[in-house]
Amino acid sequence: AIELIHKQPVRWVKERTVKCDGGGGPLGHPRIFINVDRPQICWCTYCGLPYAKESNRKMLESLPSTSYPLEPTGHEAEVPKGYQSNTGKPLEQR
């Protein structure tokens, strides 16, 4: 399962904190808040989805390698960005 989690591309956000509830309503997990202010990839401790702040993108792209892909690769294990949203907008904060 860890290998599949590390196939998930980074979700780039503009906010300092991200709310993650695993998506899927009652099939998700408890809502947690993730601070993405640091120039690093931060992941949800429940579902493993990676997040990073858009303003840190250039620094993260300059690294020789990262534990998560920075862009979607088309791998069949990728969770669509809209999966985390019930508003119809990708990663819309609820």
From TrEMBL:
Zinc finger CHCC-type domain: residues covered: 16-51
A GO CC annotation given for this chain: mitochondrion
Lineage: superkingdom: Eukaryota
InterPro entries on file: Znf_CHCC
Gene Ontology BP, a term: mitochondrial electron transport, NADH to ubiquinone
Renumbered residue ranges of the record's region Disordered: 63-94
Protein name: Zinc finger CHCC-type domain-containing protein
Organism listed in the record: Aureobasidium melanogenum (Aureobasidium pullulans var. melanogenum)
